[in-house]
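Much of what follows relies on a compact textual record of a protein's fold. Here is one such record, which you should read through line by line:
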Amino acid sequence: MKEPLVSIIVPIYNAEKYLDECLKSIINQSYGNIEMILIDDGSSDKSPQICDNYAKKDKRIKVIHKKNGGVSSARNDGICNAVGEFVIFVDSDDTIDKDSVEKLLRNIGDCDILISNLNIDGSPMTCNIHSKVLDKFEKKNFIDSALYVIDGYNKNVAYNPGKMVKLSLINDNNVRYNTKMKYGEDTLFFLTLFSKTDKIFYLNDHFYNYRIVDDSASHRVDSFFFDKLILFYNNIMASGLVSRESLYLNIVDETHKNCLRHFFRESAMYESYCNYIKKDIVQEALKNVKYGRLKLSRRITVFLLRHRLYFFNRLYYLVYIKVIKK
C-alpha cells in the first residue's frame, strides 16, 4: 500500500534566528513521504537564502518567494501549491518532534481533522476535550468551546499548531485564511473547517513545540492591537459559526486579560483600550453575557465596565496584580 504524501506548509518572514532549527525538525521526520512548502513572504533577512540552500540539498522541499502579504496570504499560497493527501502547518519559529507525522498519520484513520496537544516553551498544554470522534450532536458544543478560551482550556483547538487536515476538506469547501485579519485568522479558518465535517479526532499527545517570541506578529501588542481584536470579533459574529454567548464569553475574557495588560501602561495603550471598551460589539458582550458562566474576577470586570466605573476598575486591577495574583 502506497504511503500517503503529507504536505507541511511553513510561512516564513524574517525568521533567520530559528529557521534552521524549524526546518531540521521537519527534514528529520521518521516518516519520509513528505513535501515541505516554504513560503518566503518577502523576508529582508537571510531567510530566503536559508530556504534555497535547504532546497538544493533535499528534493522534497519547494520554496516560494513572494512579495510580503502577511502570514494568511503565505499560508494560502502554501495550500494552493500543496499536493499531499494531508496538510500540517508549522510556524517558522517552532519545531515538531521527530515522530510527529508518523504518529498523526497512524491515528487520523478516516477522519478529516486530527487535533493534538502542544508543548509551549517546553511546558505541555493539554486541550480539555474528549479523545474520541465527535458526532453531530456534540459538534456545535465543540465549536463553541473551541472559541471560548479561559486559563488555557481548549487553547489549541482552533489554532494552527498540532493539527493534521485532509487537503480535500480544505479545497472542496474552498476554505482559505482571511487575509484582512491580522489576529485570530487561524481560529476563523479552523472553525470554518470544523463546521464542514463530522470527522474530527482529538489525540491526547504532544508533538508540536510552540515557541513564544515576544516580537512575533501573534504576540506583538501595539496601538493597533485592539482594532485587530474588534475585526476578529466582527468576522466571527458574521460567520455565524458560534453562538453569541460563546462569543460574549470570549470577548469578556479578552477584555479582562487586556485590562491587566494595559490599564497601567503608557497613555497611548490606555487610550486605545478605553476606545476598545466603547465599541458596540464589546458593549453588547458586557451587557448580555451571563454572569453565571464567569469566574469571579471576570464578573467584577463586567460589572465595573458595564457601569463605566473606570476609576474603580483601575483600582481593582491594581489590587488584583499586587495582591490577588500573588
